[in-house]
Write a structure and sequence with these properties.
2 helices; 6 strands; alpha+beta; 60s Ribosomal Protein L30, Chain: A; about 35% strand
Length: about 120
């Protein structure tokens, strides 16, 4: 079975496709870095849409999601954006944890696995 890698660098690939499964690396906001949880989550989900499309799938085929937020007090704010974005009836298995991220300006990071 072949493996496809997208946006591959020396440390990681942004997306990896193996068979009919798509694995995304953790996605953080670029333009909204340092902005609100709402703005960062919106940008992250838009980036995820793009990566999934490149890999031949979409958010309706999400299998699992890991969400990392720097402060659980922002859980409801992040969920408000997530709930508007996620495909109704196709919600993935999901975990959300509080964690320090790679830079202080990042408030949210999201990693997903999807079927093709």
């Amino acid at each position: 079975m072949s493996i496809q890698r997208f946006e591959t660098g020396p440390r990681m690939s942004q997306a990896v496709v193996h068979g009919n499964t798509v694995y995304l690396a953790g996605v953080v906001a670029n333009k909204a870095k340092g902005k609100s949880v709402t703005e960062q989550t919106q940008e992250i989900l838009s980036i995820i849409d793009g990566h999934l499309a490149k890999a031949g799938t979409d958010k309706s085929k999400l299998l699992s999601t890991n969400i990392y937020i720097t402060d659980m007090k922002n859980f409801a704010e992040m969920n408000a954006v997530w709930d508007k974005w996620v495909s109704p009836g196709n919600t993935p298995a999901r975990a959300t944890v509080e964690a320090k991220l790679a830079a202080a300006d990042y408030l949210v990071e999201i990693m997903v696995v999807a079927a093709k």
